[in-house]
Structures are given as structure tokens and as C-alpha cells.
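Q: C-alpha cells for this one, please.
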Amino acid sequence: METQSFIQELLKRKGELNLAFLQEFDVSVILQNICGLLNSEGGWVLVGHNGKKFVHLELSDATINNLRQEVNTQISPQPLVYIAKDLDGNNDVVLINVLKGSRQPYTLNNIYYVFAGDSPVVANQDEISLLLRSSNEYTSTWEKTTVIDCSIKDLDQDEIIRTISEAEKMSKGKVLPNTPEEFLNYFQLSDYGNIKNGALVLFGIDPIRFLPQCRIRISVLPEGKTGDKFEDIELIESNLFDSFNRAKDYFRRYNPLISSFKENEWDRDTQLKFPDDALDEAIVNAMVHRDYGDVSGEITINIYPNKIEITNSGEIPSDIIKGKNNIKPHHSVFRNPAIAHMFYLRGKMEKLGRGLTLIRDSFVKAGYRKPEWTFQSGYTTLTLFSKSIKIQLNDRMIDFFAGFKENVFSRQDYEDFFKGTIAEKTARNDLSKLVESGFLIMTGKGSLTKYKRTEKQLPEITG
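A: Here is the predicted structure, written as C-alpha cells:
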């Protein structure tokens, strides 16, 4: 299972990461470790392991949910912590990812803890003073900068109320501010009437009016990077939650399909070329991790015949990804922690600190090529490769491409080339296979349907 393999990766790097081992499920001790990591560099707590081997635990889902609520109730201000239960053999294991707190210092029942060595200790006055003055090297101050001439009326109140409702479910009776103004103040997204950039991109009715970089551009390029044709361009200029839903809906409508045909049958088996969950996670990652301070840094999503490229401003720290897809367990740090926190409360980020791993493992599990991350000039590009399509090229396909000289043609042209020796159904099956394996692109509908050669070459007739 993916979580187990991730745990094994963590264990290999236990000398490099803040990794606490707890062999007993003691809520008070767990909370002390979480608070200490929040006030330090972040890290991981592994409950059900003594540092050398797994130990026997039996935990119910209700116990894990209660721990989540205790974190949100006992630690202040409300932190960003991911808690998951999985199995190692017959034993329950609890994996807790603690992100370095963006609002240090954090307290557990009014006591400050820091992480020293491999365990939490009560902070002294000097350490508390240092926490108050410290800054996060990867955390931007942009999201907490005031937007000139923006007021609470420029925000979508319904989106804020939905977020409040979701936050209350996680707090086990702890009273969080339940009005939009007070809620934004609590999470440092406004300062008593002064709306911050983070609030505007999260909840703005028309954020592009204030921040031109609040845009997602989706382009479909059926001829690849070297082509000059755009089949479809979608501009999304809205707040992040609405933008996420619209981008998600776009992929649901236009995510390219692949098909397999059975000989002499009209029906075909069809599946999406890209895993849905990985696409959703990729969109969230681009939104949460991008550098919003770059006014020209809109998110661009380019859909090619055999891949999708998602580019956002801001580079992933070099110690997280080695090469193009070797993801290392790491101390998770968000460039925009307030934005990330709101996405977490809304259920858009289910594996905090492991989004990159989720994307990679979704593709690997489905048998796809591993995604690749590249970095250039302050931008990150994630390339998602479609499911490779292998077809058995038949003699008709080879003869047609060798003998037909026009670059654009119809299904009737394909039939006529063979001078009445093939049926319409055979022609349709051949052409559909060639389209879905990237040798042709199809334009138009019905009687106006045309097929155009791409740059992809048939290996049987090259050279």
C-alpha cells in the first residue's frame, strides 16, 4: 500500500528529518509532540513504532477522529496537521504530518513546546522570544498584505460561510469565530476591515479586478507544441474555490478519452487518459504553492495529445524532488500557509505534505508513466503523461499512409482508397484507433468530420 511504502521511506531518512516515534497511543504525549514540531521545523510523528520496529496497536476510526478534534481544540492557534491511520501487517499505525507553523508560537493548553532532538520540551523565555521574531524562509508575506480599496463586500460571503461550517466540524465544540469578519481576522486574512491578498484570492467575487494574476488559462493543443492550432482556450478568472471547481469540471468534460475496439464490433471500452484524483491534486498544488507575488504568473494548463502540462510561478524547494520525479520525504512548508489552511478546511487537501507523492503514485498504480516536475526561471511545470496506447498497426493503415498524399481527408476518402474492399465500420475502427493513438487528429462533427496527420510517425513506414 502507498502509505506503508511512504512510511518505509520515512524510516530510511529518520536521521535527516524530525521524526518522533511513539509506541503507545497517548493523546497528551502526541499533542506535546505536535506542538513542539509546530514551533520547530515541522516533521512527522509515527505512533505504533519504537524506532526499531512496529508495535501492536488496535485503534478505531473514532479514536483517530477524536485525536483530530483534540488537536484543533487543545492547540492554539488552530494548526495545520495531517493524521492518517493505516495497517502494517496486523498492527494499526498512525502517521502524523506536522507542518511548520506559520503563526508561531503555538501553545498546548497555554504551554509552549519546542522539539529538541527527538522529543518535545517546554520552551524557555528566550526560545519563546525567538519564535515571535522568527520567519519562514519559504513562506511568502504576500497573502497577508492588505489589498488597497478592497472591503468585505468584495468577498463572496457564501464561500466564507461554507468554510466556517467545515471548520466547525473539525473543532469538537471549540468555538471558532462564526461571522465572516471575525473568521477572517482569526486566520489573519483580514485586519479589522483591511482585507488581505489571501482573502481576496480565496473568496473574492471578482479578484481579477484587484489582482490580475488570479487567472487560470487552459489551452488544448491537438497538434502538440510545434503546432499552431488551439482547439479550445478556457480562461478562469475567479476566486480559488470557484476556480478549482470550474477547472475540475473542465477536465470532467474534456479530459481526453482512450478506447479499445474489438474486431468486428461497434462498441468500445473507454477510460480517461489521466487519473481523476491526480488531476484534482495537481490543480490544488498549483493553486496553493504558486508565487502570487508574480503579477504575470497565472496558472497555465496545456493539454496535448499525449500529456498535460501544468505551470505555476514559484519553484519547489530543491531538497524535495531529486531529478524529475524522485520525491523525498521532507518537512512540509507551504509558501501560502493561510491559503493552504482554507483548502484543508474545505476538504480539498486530504494528504497534507504528500500531494506530490499522491500524484506520482496515482499514475504508477494505474500503469502510467511517472509524472515529471521541472523548474526554470522561477516556475514549476508538472507534466502528466497519458496512458500509453499500443495498437496493432495493420496493413491497411500502413498502405494508406504510404500511398495517400493528402494531409487532410475524410472517412470516405479512407474507404475509397481501398476501392470498395473495406466496409464503413472497418474504416471507422481504423481511423478511431489512429486518432486515439496520436497519429491523427479529428476535427468537425458528423458529415463534416475530417482527419489530419500529426507529426507522429508510423514506425513501420519510417526511414
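A few notes: Residues 396 and 418 are 8 Å apart (CA to CA). DSSP finds 14 helices and 23 strands in the chain.
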